[in-house]
Amino acid sequence: MSWQSLKNAVAATYNGGMRTALEHLKETFGFDGARSPAESRVAFTIAVVALAAKMSKADGVSLPIEAQAFERQFSVPDSERAHLRRLYQLASQDVAGYEAYAAQVARLLEGQHELKISVLECLFHVASADGVLHPDEDRYLAHVAEILGLSQREFRCLRRSFVVDADSPYEVLNVSPAATDREIKSRYRDLVKSHHPDALVAKGVPPEFLAGAERRLAAITAAYESILAERGLRVERALEPSQ
User: Fold this and answer.
1) pLDDT exceeds 50 at position 19
2) What is the fold of 169-243?
3) Positive or negative, the Cα torsion across 213, 216, 218, 221?
4) Cα separation of 192 and 199, whole Å?
5) What would the pLDDT profile of 110-130 be if each residue is shown by its tens digit?
6) Domain parsing of the chain, residue ranges
7) What is the pLDDT of residues 222-240, one digit of tens each?
8) Are 30 and 2 spatial neighbours (Cβ–Cβ below 8 Å)?
9) How far does CA 24 lie from the centroid of its chain?
10) CA 238 – CA 242 distance, rounded (Å)
11) Beta strand segments in 129-197, E
12) pTM for this one?
């Protein structure tokens, strides 16, 4: 990514109003169509940072712990961290316009379904940083998922990795409660293989989005073990991709 481009863009916002500055960044970096690969990357960064920051404001208060959670998920060079924080600060003033950022991510990641899921996962990390998923945050995330083109079932499965509900572990594995033991085992192994960090890297998921892989695997395994226990079956782990 052209970090110098982002640095210059963010630096240019210091003398302007918050919302005006953020709108300037949108207009400058490809929100009306990408101008170059470097500018596409900057536009993607702006969109993801803005989505996370505005999500943190969805419950009315943007907390420092949420900003810290985002920084843990979205790795940048130490020399650029101050610029990323400024961008986050600009966007966290309100939730206005988040749909445009979600739509921009959807356009830039067209045909890259796994990356869209990774973006939503990053947002869930921020939303759950304070230990509570506020109903307004829940609605925000559901709408972002819809704009990204993710199904309701995909949203619920990812949500289950962060939120403890009374819902069925079958949703986590995305299988019917009527599925056979063999079908559930096969589904579990497929999910473990597809969510393994090595598999995600091979699919093009950038390193900054791999932090949630272990958590997702843990949720998948917990759901599988819950189903086995419910059926009186022996727990059989498969945390490594089958050969």
Assistant:
1) no
2) Helix Hairpins (1.10.287)
3) negative
4) 10
5) 888 988 998 998 899 888 888
6) 3-167, 169-243
7) 889 888 888 887 665 544 4
8) no
9) 25
10) 8
11) none
12) 0.63
